[in-house]
Amino acid sequence: MTTQPLLGKVALVAGGAKNLGGLISRSLADAGAAVLVHYNSPASREAAEATVSAIQQSGGKALALQADLTGVQEIRRLFDTAIHQFGRVDIAINTAGKVLKKPITDTTEAEFDELFALNAKAAYFFVQEAGRRLERDGKIISIATSLLAAFTGHYSAYAASKAPLEHLVRAAAKELASRNISVNNVAPGPLDTPFFHGQESPESVAYLSAASMNGQLGDIRDIAPIVRFLATEGWWINGQTLFANGAFATR
Ligand SMILES: NC(=O)c1ccc[n+]([C@@H]2O[C@H](COP(=O)([O-])OP(=O)(O)OC[C@H]3O[C@@H](n4cnc5c(N)ncnc54)[C@H](OP(=O)(O)O)[C@@H]3O)[C@@H](O)[C@H]2O)c1
Hints:
The structure is a single chain. By secondary structure, the protein is of the alpha/beta class. The protein has a single domain (10-190, 220-244), classed as NAD(P)-binding Rossmann-like Domain (Rossmann fold). The protein has 9 helices and 7 strands; from the N terminus they run βαβαβαβαβααβαααβ. It has a 7-stranded parallel β-sheet, sandwiched between helices. Helix 1 (19-30) packs across helix 9, helix 4 (109-133) runs parallel beside helix 5 (156-162) and helix 4 packs parallel to helix 6. The chain starts with 9 loop residues before the first strand and ends in a 7-residue tail after the last strand. Residues 15, 17-21, 39-41, 44, 68-70, 95-99, 118, 143, 145, 188, 190-191, 193, 195-196 line the site of NADP nicotinamide-adenine-dinucleotide phosphate. NADP nicotinamide-adenine-dinucleotide phosphate is lined by residues 15, 17-21, 39-41, 44, 68-70, 95-99, 118, 143, 145, 188, 190-191, 193, 195-196.
């Protein structure tokens, strides 16, 4: 089996500069893909440049691009840029997400709107644009959350705003099947990244760690290979939400 099954393919990774998205960018580049590395905040620029330069130093092709994906035009610009720079897009991964841990009774309208603008609306239009622009045999993968299978409080707006992804993959998988494009979600449990720690206390981190099979939080290195598999040999998996969480939650 070739070690570079994605040679000649192009991947676009939204949120591809750092943490889970950064590792996905590098792992798809290792598999041979040219990668458009998207980032949003000015603070992520350095991480995006480091990811691009690590890929280039290993002999791969990559380019960083800033965009706030809550604007649908910006999502289109992302795909336009990938096609302009690399000639095509075969794999579109969306790792962009916003989180909030708060009781329902305290959540503001602005907080609700902000979460839904990225986790639901941008996620929908990302899949739409990928469906329009991907080559035959393409792969679309969005990062959801294992909270969709958990019975827990305080993440209502976050989990609710990721929930539409579950139906979106079913519809998109059917609609894009004639071009052999697969569409899936990967739904991790708690991951040891600043995204998670920003919402938690030492007590809740201990509680959530104890809920997994090894007593630890999830690691991005456990999730990136699943995304790579879906983008390569795992093409027959289609329209699914894959829960990957070390036995944290199931259904
Ligand atoms: N960490 C966890 O425990 C966990 C568990 C399950 C699922 N997830 C999901 O995994 C994904 C990656 O999370 P992570 O832990 O690796 O943290 P992360 O690096 O903070 O990922 C969030 C990404 O969303 C991007 N983003 C935020 N606002 C955006 C906007 N308006 N437009 C475009 N992109 C925007 C961020 O970019 P900037 O920083 O540049 O703004 C960042 O790249 C997220 O979708 C998250 O919901 C995480």
